Amino acid sequence: MAFSMIPLLNGERAVVLFFITSVLVSLPFSLLYHGLALSLLTLSALCIEIQAESSNSLHQFNTRPGASSGILLGAITLPAVMLAKMIQLTRAFSSNHTGLEEIETWTMHFWSTSTCCLSVLMLLWNAMHESDVVSQTRFHRLWRLKLGLGCKILYGVVCYSSLATMYPNVVRMALMSSWILCHGLVASKLIQHLLSTFPSCASIGEALLVTAGLVLYFGDMLGCTIAKMLGALSSSELVSFQYMMNRSEISPIIQGLLLGLLLCPVVFKHLHRWECIVNTENSEAKKYFEIRRSMIFFSVLGFISIVVVPSWMMLVHEFDTHPFLWVISFTFSEPVKRLSLCVYWLSLICASILRFYNISRSSKIERILLRKYYHLMAVLMFLPALIFQPRFLNLAFGAALAVFLALEIIRVWRIWPLGEPVHQFMNAFTDHRDSEFLIVSHFSLLLGCALPIWMSSGYNDRPLAPFAGILSLGIGDTMASVVGHKYGVLRWSKTGKKTIEGTAAGITSVLAACSILLPLLASTGYILTERWLSLLLAVTVSGLLEAYTAQLDNAFIPLVFYSLLCL
């Protein structure tokens, strides 16, 4: 099969390959197997993306209109993040700053996300060729089967070799291998469910990123729950789950809240199957029906939030008190700083919402520029908190994400009396990347700022790494859009809207922000280890990715920037 050089070397793929190369050349010898697995994943994703986009052979997946498939970027982002974190922890382990348990945990994360991505790639590989099975010869079908099987076997050998060096015990090795394999099986099912349930809401790459993230996140929750129920805290076979359960109280609180909110619509749907029999032509009957429907929803939400979620939290973590009482106690442990921060956040949110919502209704300003003001607001909200109250910010991110998720569920289900007002308000800030069914931009902005901070909660020898989302989205992306829109002339491509002037402004603004932030961090006690050449590389690569990618940049750019900062 011949591929021309033009589609092989388009801008997005070139930047992604350079990013992967930067990660691979930074690998110590102890992570050789992980580098081989990431290389195999990259080559597989590249070949599948090129074939899919050149032949339109994945048309059966109802993806977001106007976006490229994004298979390569979606397949390598999370594994590359995990590997970059492992490189950082390897440095720490060699200098006795961290223990083996943390490295084992992130090793499991790497193999779990890599297996998720490879499983989805094999699903796409089979789907591409099944859609064109009539025109295939017998030789071609055999070649396809052998190539797919060879890729799986090679990946399995590399994964087994890596795990064998870490888990010499046969029982432990079998347990961890089975757990990793389950991640791949679940991911291949989940991405099909997501693309069919939320049509035209995401590209394949975006859906792949979400799928791998959800499977990893809730797989950790399930693993901790099983380990706790089996009384395996003292068992060496489950040391990675033991490490996760020994983390701070904030992690299970956030996980429990998100799980409860995701369970709520599932339970509500099964309790409300009789909805279709109501006579919607009768306005009075419809009104009472909406009220009953709303009461059922909020009853389910309240029961899960008050009973189910706290019970799970107390199961997996030894709280001294009720989790919600712990949150109150944690907040009032430094009342002046934390309550002042809450007042500052609420004032900023109220003022910005009133101002920008009125502008969006009466002004002809483009929504993409209007949304960038919220990126700047994220800088004003999160930057001071990250410097002076990082633990409280971790909890606040979880609370904000829970509120966003609850409001989106209410909006999608049109739960009376909030559903329609929330829908009208959110529509004022949507753009072409949001569908009529699901609005995801605010989620991606919040998670883009939060994920680098959450992943830096353990050992971190790169002070700028937690700021990756705030810098790349709040400053770089904002300046690139504003300058590119007002002054941009030279475009990166004939069909795209991104300009060279905008990209240069974004890169320059992030470097300027870093030059101000680094001395400030040094004055608060941080030990600075960043090298300006490495920082320039990280900022430039993330800026070029923002310029070239057609994917949801809020989701990918912070993770790429974070990975490069960790190297």
Care to describe what's here?
75% of the residues lie in helices and 0% in strands. Helix 19 packs antiparallel against helix 20. The N terminus is likely disordered. With 567 residues, the chain is mainly alpha-helical.
List the helices and strands and how they pair.
Elements: H1 5-8, H2 11-25, H3 32-55, H4 71-94, H5 100-130, H6 138-166, H7 170-197, H8 204-229, H9 239-245, H10 250-271, H11 283-316, H12 323-332, H13 335-362, H14 367-388, H15 390-413, H16 419-427, H17 441-455, H18 468-487, H19 500-523, H20 532-548, H21 553-566
Please report the number of helical segments. 21
If you average the pLDDT, what whole number results?
84
Give the distance, in angstroms, between the N- and C-terminal Cα atoms.
36 Å
User: Gyration radius, to the nearest Å?
Assistant: 24 Å
Structural classification: mainly alpha
Shape: globular
Helix content: over 70%
Q: DSSP strand (E) fraction? A: under 5%
Tell how many strands the DSSP assignment holds.
0
Please give the largest β-sheet: none
**Poorly predicted tracts of residues:** 1-6, 232-236
The run of helices and strands is: HHHHHHHHHHHHHHHHHHHHH
Structural key phrases:
mainly alpha; single chain; disordered N terminus
Concise synopsis of the structure shown:
The protein has 567 residues and is mainly α. The chain is built from 21 helices and no strands.
